[in-house]
Amino acid sequence: MTEIAAPPHPFDAAVTLRAAEDGRTRGRTTPDYTNMVGPFGGVTAAALLRAVQQHPDRLGDPISLTVNYAGPVADGDFDITARAVRTNRTNQHWQLELTQDGVVATTATAVFGTRRDTWSDTELDVPEVPSAETVPAQTLPEFIAWARNYEMRFVEGAVPEQDAGEHPDSTTTLWVRDSPARPLDFPALTALSDVFYPRVFLRRGRYMPAGTVSLTVYFHADAAQLDTQGDDFVLGTARTHRFSQGYFDQAAQLWGRDGTLLATSHQLVYFKD
Q1: Residue 265: which of 47, 69, 42, 49 has the closest Cα?
Q2: DSSP readout, 106-169?
Q3: Nearest to 27 by CA among 76, 72, 96
Q4: Which of 203, 205, 207, 206 is nearest to 249 (CA)?
Q5: d(CA 120, CA 194)
Q6: pTM over cut 0.90
Q7: Backbone angles phi, psi at 63, to 5 degrees
Q8: Where is the Acyl-CoA thioesterase-like C-terminal domain (predicted)?
């Protein structure tokens, strides 16, 4: 009897890339990761990271990734061009473009490299929170399709009810993992760095037009440390430093249950009040 292969995890389907002409790779958006406008920015960032991972010239593992969302990504095929602009002894610098029908929708830069055993220390303190199992699962509004791919357990700063009134700060802290559960790797960690809904929703107590303009992820864990996490929950926390003139920043941290700081991220978000 011929065994029927199990379908890929929805996340893996969303970041699958195949070879295209002129050295490019081609992907396709999936309805599972639809956002309010276009696909979830985290899955777009993950696809860009995957393009470097699959490149035959790639050296080492991700150190950082910066994604600039130049315009909306339409449903359908997209092409990614990845070019190593310089390779040093321990790090490698990449430029990437995501295009559709020859029009640039997203640009990115990435640094990959090899890590060495050195003295290390973490100056940030992991938030003191109850265990994931004691926090009830919640989700984002039904119309945000991509959120259904994550199990979210908000410790503080859950998405407010519409017209809930202003909140005194913008901090959200939650336990989160892929749903269905999936072992953590660098693309999944990249997507998780963008899992926080816009901070302005919390501060203003209502939904409004908002979208990420630029996202940077710094990877503090190596592949072995990610393997240790398995498919367990990751603890994420995010807040804004300033809302001003139609933009706000967001600083986020992602921690393993064992207290390992896995990644930090910073992003700039457009909003319309």
Answers
A1: 42
A2: EEEEEEEE----------SPPP----GGGS--B---TT-GGGGGEEEEEEE-PPPPTT----S-
A3: 76
A4: 203
A5: 26
A6: yes
A7: -110, -45
A8: 136-270
